[in-house]
Design brief:
With 280 residues, the chain is an alpha/beta fold. 46% of the residues lie in helices and 15% in strands. A seven-stranded parallel β-sheet has the order 3-2-4-1-5-6-7, with helices on both faces. It is globular and about 65 Å long. The structure holds guanosine-5'-diphosphate and magnesium ion (MG).
Length: 280
């Protein structure tokens, strides 16, 4: 990373997040096609917390279905959520950096928008596309607030299914009710990924959002903030590892835990003991 890092900072990262089965991989596949047609090389990172694979393992159907696996201008990397010491987000960030240093113009980052660590991964993106499907109906209301907050663009995929207009209307209403000040209103794009419908307008929306970020200066601001969070995250992980150890299962931790459980000491004193033990 030390040697690679100076070569990073040029790739534009587009995140795709949403519920499992929404059509994220199919959409990514379509947009890879469009970006390739513009002559750009790109990397794809697909993060699947349900993947039985870890680390550098080989890829499920999800990837196999992509028609670009034989294209030398496209590099696809799949990551499961286990087996990444220090967490999924830092691991995905490093994979992103490698692709960036390789000279990719774009990195597409697919994550299932469910848990906290997936949200953190989604936050690596310059532009985040939240992929939803019709028929979510009322459940649009229950979409995690976190996902609403990170959306720069909404794709309502499977627009060949009933209730598409209703879902679009629900989303518009949610956006209208959202009173946070914003310099960019997330567009809602209807797509049928399997038929490559709406994907050109979706790709245009990505370009438009990028231009907005660049012109307003928000891009460098966002990237700086992201870098700050990334460094703090590394520090947090390291300090925790130094003080607590690899896990709370260590005998030393368990002994101190016993003392707290038996009310011979309190949690604050226990934490101090752990800290002192390490600095000695
Ligand atoms: N009817 C319909 N099916 C789609 C569409 N896009 C994707 N699918 C199907 O939905 C399923 C899940 O797609 P996938 O891209 O793997 O979803 P992901 O889990 O979000 O990555 C697959 O069987 C796709 O063929 C669409 O626009 N319309
Ligand atoms: Mg997928």
């Amino acid at each position: 990373m030390r040697e690679l890092f100076p070569w990073t900072g040029n790739a534009y990262t587009v995140g795709f997040t949403g519920p499992p089965g929404a059509g994220k991989s199919t959409l990514v596949d379509d947009l890879v096609q469009l970006a390739r047609a513009e002559g750009d090389r790109l990397g794809v990172i697909a993060v699947d917390p349900n993947s039985p694979f870890t680390g550098g393992a080989i890829l499920g159907d999800r990837i196999r279905m992509m028609r670009h696996t034989v294209d030398p201008g496209v590099f696809i990397r799949s990551m499961g959520s286990r087996g990444h010491l220090g967490g999924l987000a830092p691991a995905a960030a490093q994979a992103r950096d490698v692709l960036d240093a390789m000279g990719m113009s774009y990195v597409f980052l697919e994550t299932v928008g469910v848990g906290q660590s997936e949200l953190e991964v989604a936050e690596l993106a310059d532009t985040t596309v939240v992929v939803l499907t019709p028929g979510l109906g009322d459940s649009v209301q229950t979409i995690k607030a976190g996902i609403m907050e990170i959306a720069d663009i909404f794709a309502v995929n499977k627009a060949d299914q009933p209730d598409t207009e209703r879902t679009v209307a629900d989303l518009k209403e949610l956006l209208r009710l959202d009173s946070r000040p914003r310099s960019w209103t997330p567009p809602i794009v209807k797509t049928v990924a399997t038929a490559e419908e709406g994907t050109t307008p979706l790709w245009a929306a990505v370009h438009e959002h990028r231009r907005h970020l660049e012109v307003s200066g928000e891009l460098s601001h966002r990237r700086r903030e992201r870098m700050a969070r990334r460094i703090v995250e590394i520090v947090t992980h390291r300090v925790r590892h130094e003080i607590v150890g690899p896990s709370a299962e260590t005998p030393r931790f368990q002994t101190i835990l016993d003392e707290v459980v038996e009310r011979r000491t309190d949690p604050l004193t226990a934490a101090s003991k752990l800290q002192e033990g390490r600095s000695r």
